[in-house]
Amino acid sequence: MTTFLVPLILIGGLTSAGVYLLLERNLTRMLLGLLLIGNAVNLLILTAGGPGGNPPIRDRGSNGATTTADPLAQGMILTAIVISMGIAAFVLALAYRSYRLTTAEEVTNDPEDTRVSQLSAAEEDVIPLPDASRDTDAPDELDALPGFEGSK
């Protein structure tokens, strides 16, 4: 099976540009990154689907091809296009709502989230020592199932 180098380079370029845009804080750039990654995946599926050929319909031919094209790759690409358009519509709605609420398209840090992460970082510095009086061999309420008396 012959693999063409140009589609593979194009897939890598689209994926790397999409990941770079997806890591930005701007919602429009995030949307463009999602679309680029979606197109890269579609091109990857098309490349992995193999060479073209006759349509997968009985008694149909095209330009004297001897093999039949794989319909699974085409169906998966159509499904991926529909899903990526749904995701794009959702991200556009999020961007519109964010712009209407804050009049900024940039995603900022949430002050409450920052406060909670600082509290948890301060609590990680203090490691509590286990209570030696609590660790005994005597059975207590957490040692057995309710109603189980154990061996007497």
From TrEMBL:
Residues 107-152 are annotated as: Disordered. It is a multi-pass membrane protein. Gene3D superfamilies: 1.10.287.3510. The keyword Transmembrane applies. The keyword Transmembrane helix applies. Keywords: Cell membrane, Membrane, Transmembrane, Transmembrane helix. Belongs to the CPA3 antiporters (TC 2.A.63) subunit C family. This is Cation:proton antiporter.
